[in-house]
Amino acid sequence: MRQIRSFIDLFANVPRFRWSWLGSTISMLGSRMIGVTYPLLAYTLTSSPAWIGWVMFASTVPGLLWYIPAGALVDRFGRRSVMIVSEILRGVLVVVLCLGMAMGWLDIPHLVVIALFEGALSVNSSVAETALIPTTVKRDNVDTALAMHETSVHGMLLVGRPFGGLLFGIAHIAPFIANAAMFFAAAGVLSRAERDISTQSANPRSAHADMGAGFVELWHNGFLRYATLVTAFTNLMVQGLIVVFLSEAADEGLPSGIAGLILAASGVGGVVGAFISPQWERISRKINGKEPRRRLVGFKRLVLTHGRSVMLVHLWACAAALAVPLILAQASVSFAIALLVIGLVGGLSNVTIRMMLSRVPDDRMARVVGVSRLGSYSGVAIGPLVASLLLGLLGSGLTMLVLWCLMAVFAVIVTSVRGLRNSLTSTIEPQAQPAA
Asked: Domain of life, per the record (predicted)?
């Protein structure tokens, strides 16, 4: 209840946060919907599963190519401004798509091009909102603001996908009309927030130097450097888990609705993890207050140390989650349990990483966000390919065993190497916002 009151108080009393959070949430809902309806429309236009892959590739490849330039763009022209322009242009692209559908000239090459450019603009919005939210509140409210925003990220994932599928079933054009309305609405809501005060448009540095500054800043921050590594590796393993589950579901003839509910478990866990993140210090203190069994003393000392080691908890929880399908012989419920746990610690660690990102000097924050996002997204992009290769060579059972072994070995290495462990157990203390 205390956390809910904090959210309500922040929403009601801080207009800049309210409009920024609302605009971001509307944008995220549109993004989650369109991520589902692109492949559905591709199949409708071609009746070819191959084109589903190409359209999904076109909408996601900007995540690998554009995060770094997007960070430089946001730092140079301002978070709010970049996000407003990006949302308007996304709306325009989707309106063009709707006109093509209505007039009968839309073909698959048009859809691929629209998905590519809309995907790049969505990267702009993603980086901009991540850098914007911490600047809309006072320093002592940043954790609550980030927890509220991260909760909405996972909440929109849960709502957006089924909502997009539902509208597409009613009429193929319906979800895209809704998407265009959402993107324009997001831009309108964001325009009500106060203007950016840290725009760097007069910055004389080259674009190349701007992009390089993000790498340098992240590299010199030990926590962010290793947290990005941990996130990339765990994302790779989790994507492998999802591929194994989908393969098993197809082999067993599991209804698509049930499969969707199981995959949604990660979103449920993410909502819970993000929601409780401001209370993590109190929760971990309570855990520390209990006397552990002798054989767990060392583990507690390394991992549950006064709330400072969220990333280590994330690592070990993911290792434990990947073991569940092995223990339960890859039953469907085992994948749901694993994804629920992974989503929970993912929501918790995402808020922690974003708290550390909010401590980056204001004039370089978006560039560091871009580098961090690129690192974590690389695991999402590469994971399915690696898992597919393993499945073809080893089968699902051995693939799960390999994924768990890799995750467990990585967790042991990170926990055992003092430099890694110390970097990932940095305390996040309030501090003054660096001057722009």
From this structure: Bacteria
Short-list 64, 65, 45, CA closest to 55: 45
Cα(116)–Cα(371) distance, integer angstroms: 20
The Cα–Cα gap between 201 and 318 comes to: 42
What CA–CA distance (Å, rounded) separates 158 from 151?
11
- Do 207-428 and 1-139+154-192 have the same topology in CATH? yes
Domain boundaries, the chain: 1-139+154-192, 207-428
Dump pLDDT digits (tens) for 403-426: 999 999 999 999 888 888 888 875
Distance CA 98, CA 108 (A): 13
DSSP, residue by residue, 412-423:
HHHHHSHHHHHH
C-alpha distances (whole Å) from 340 to each of 248, 315, 324, 383, 406 are 18, 15, 11, 19, 20
Average pLDDT, the chain: 81
Q: Look up the CATH number of domain 1-139+154-192.
A: 1.20.1250.20
* DSSP tag of 25: H
Q: Which residues contact 300 (CB under 8 A, 6 or more apart)?
A: 287, 288, 292
User: Which pLDDT belongs to residue 257?
Assistant: 65
Residues 48-59: pLDDT tens digits?
Answer: 767 776 787 788
Burial of 97-114, coded b for 16+ CB within 10 Å and e otherwise, reads bbebbeeeebeeeebbeb
427: left (phi over 0), alpha (psi -120 to 50) or beta: beta
**What is the dotted CATH code of the domain comprising 207-428?**
1.20.1250.20
